[in-house]
Amino acid sequence: MAHTRFHGLDQASNHKPVEFVNPFNKSSEYYGSHVFNKKSMQEYMPKDSFDLVRRAIDQGEKINLTNADQVAVAMKTWAIALGATHYTHWFQPLTGSTAEKHDGFFEPTSDGFAVEKFNGSMLVQAEPDASSFPNGGIRNTFEARGYTAWDPTSPAFVFGTTLCIPTVFVAYTGEALDNKVPLLRALQSIDDAATSVAQYFDKNISKVNATLGWEQEYFLVDESLFMARPDLVMTGRTLVGHAPAKGQQMDDHYFGSIPERVISYMREIEFECHKMGIPVKTRHNEVAPGQFEFAPVFEEANVAVDHNSLFMDVLEKVARRHSFRVLFHEKPFSTVNGSGKHNNWSLSSNTGVNLLAPGSTPKRNLLFLTFFINTIKAVNEQADLIRAAIASASNDHRLGANEAPPAIISVFIGSQLSRVLDELEKLEKGKLSPEKKSDLKLNVVGKIPEILLDNTDRNRTSPFAFTGNKFELRAVGSTANCAVSMTVLNMIVADQLVQFKKQVDGLIESGLKKEDAIFNILREYIKTSKDIRFEGDGYSSGWAEIAKNRGLKNTPDTPRALDFYLTESSINLFEKTGVLTKVELEARYDILQEEYFKNIQIESRALGDIVKNHIVPVAIRYQSILSENVNRLKKVLPDDVYPRVSKEQIEMIVEISERVSLALSNVSKMTEARKVANKIDDIRDKSIAYCDNVKPYFNKIRRSVDQLELLVDNEMWPLPKYREMLYIR
Ligand code: ADP
Ligand code: MG
């Protein structure tokens, strides 16, 4: 036993950094070399078909099969030149990760030779054996098959020796089976809605893109230690493990110097990412020891979402070469800060304007305020949906744990903008006097500074914070696919903008000037969406109290948060915006509930096994050593000495016995609770049973085990300890 443990540790400490040598001097020499972007298209395609594809990308025009053939030939030639031997339709099923099935270009001919084949229909559509992807019953109800279809708005890329073609995944009956379809629909709806509102201010705006800049946090653990932790292998987090003497209390990891072994890894990540056009730019240590972050330059949301999924894949694959394992789990180590994935979001017009950035003229700032206030209103009304969109078993550990935003959704805007909104709120109803209007323009709207990026006006405890020229959704889990929260956010803002347009047009029809109408509606919105605004400390217990009084929901667990998807108003909203039909939404709900209880089920089984097969046997063995020792002492020591020197050891024996018996009895009770839950058919009830009746045993059991860790001989302890895993040498 001791051997296993030290074997792992020896390996860990022997790991020399795997040197990564970048053959280039500058990223610009290879950036995007493995992306089938406009540059490579132009090089490999006749001009007319290149133009067609460009229009498909920029304006959503359809591509016919002849044209697709030309694209396919170009793509194949390009990819083979980069060493690709296979192609895959790369998609994002509802499991949260990405899926790919590789097919070779190679095709034998009847005369014994072979050709490399890839045509338009292979590019445009494929039929993966999809029966094993979660579908929430859709394919049982409708049709047994699903297919993947090319998404020309996200460029194909070569990863390793495979040409990857971003695709959507749908059932033959048309229902979405992936994360991309609803995202694309939501992005279409925000484009339409935001464009028509933006035209109040600038007729040249004909397209609005949602933009996303994600920040991905993750932990690195030495591979040999990872392999020695069955909980990490099976669940992605440690189910037991005592806090190390030194954790993050010294605050010395954040922005500290990055270990050489990690730097080498990061450099290779950057190299791989830049080849594939993922614009990762910043890298640093995070708050916890062993925790790091990468963030790219923001991009159009669909591409950014694909890039995040691909990035996570790259992180894992490259980690193996450096004998690391990546932990994406939101809470891999208790007592140590967990990981999130901040989603920085904004809207950008074809005229190059960031609609959520203040400008230098009152007119520009009225446009800014319009989008800014509509976003706040949308979140005020649909906070529940945002809560649902960030829900997962693993993110439950983080939300409300005073290291990440609480499970209460609120909006932070900073003191400068709070003052602006307070001023606007004071406006009188109806037509504004010319004096009032010019005063407003001069002293309120005109006074919004162009640069709001003031670091003193930041609030890291808010789940949805305005950060000067974008909103930052900070409550997204580090394991999540950004598509889910981006779908909801863009959808609710789109719907809000449609309502806004309708109301403003109504006032204009009734005789108000456009600007007056806009001011009137905005003032109304400021009034009605005050409850969601919170500038204070989101981690404080006082906030939970205030929020409660304001009627804001605090939903701490996933099974109940998911219920928000299926309220009548949510279903209406999803249907009205065309993002998901009721059937699709219900299917997703089932999948997510199932994913939840399966997660808890796996954790519960893993924990039971660890206690019974790893911890208890070792504790008992150590306890017998102690007992034997005490017996011997009794034999050899004089009667008056023995009681005095054996007292502590006997107490230890008692303590070990108590911990062991408590751990075992809680494991039995947990197993019973699992058996009861497993008999439940209704998927929601089952999920709730796992949440309310199984999960509560985790911490109880853990407490006994963690105390045993402090009692049992270090050499015998069968699992790598926190202090060993968290510090990368
Ligand atoms: P921080 O918030 O850490 O101080 P920045 O403000 O520079 O740093 O940006 C953080 C993230 O926000 C980056 O990933 C960046 O790409 C993203 N970001 C910046 N501007 C936008 C935007 N207009 N839309 C979406 N994301 C953006
Ligand atoms: Mg940030």
Helical proportion, percent range: 40-55%
Q: Which ions, cofactors or small ligands are bound in this entry?
A: adenosine-5'-diphosphate, magnesium ion
Count of helix runs = 24
What is the subunit organization of this protein? single chain
CATH architecture title of the largest domain: 2-Layer Sandwich
CATH homology superfamily name of the largest domain: Glutamine synthetase/guanido kinase, catalytic domain
Rg (CA only): 29 Å
* Number of separate strands: 17
The CATH topology of the largest domain, please? Creatine Kinase, Chain A, domain 2
Low-confidence stretches: none
Q: Output the structural class.
A: alpha+beta
Question: How much of the polypeptide forms β-strand, as a percent range?
Answer: 5-15%
Distance between the termini: 24 Å
For the report, how would you describe the main beta sheet?
A: 9 strands, mixed
How would the global form be characterised?
Answer: globular
The CATH class name of the largest domain reads Alpha Beta
The residue-averaged pLDDT reads: 91
Task: Write a structural description.
The strands form three sheets. Strands 9, 10, 11, 12, 13, 14, 15, 16 and 17 form a nine-stranded mixed beta sheet that branches. Strands 1, 2, 5, 6, 7 and 8 form a six-stranded mixed beta sheet that branches. A two-stranded antiparallel sheet has the order 3-4. It is globular, with a radius of gyration of 29 Å. α7 runs parallel beside α15 and α15 packs across α16 (514-528). The chain is of the alpha+beta class. The protein folds into three domains: 31-177, Glutamine synthetase, N-terminal domain (Ubiquitin-like (UB roll), Roll); 187-580, Glutamine synthetase/guanido kinase, catalytic domain (Creatine Kinase, Chain A, domain 2, 2-Layer Sandwich); 594-725, Four Helix Bundle (Hemerythrin (Met), subunit A), CATH 1.20.120.1560. The chain contains 24 helices and 17 strands. Bound molecules: adenosine-5'-diphosphate (ADP) and magnesium ion. Residues 215, 342, 472 line the site of magnesium ion. Residues 211-213, 215, 295-298, 344-346, 354, 467, 469-470 line the site of adenosine-5'-diphosphate.
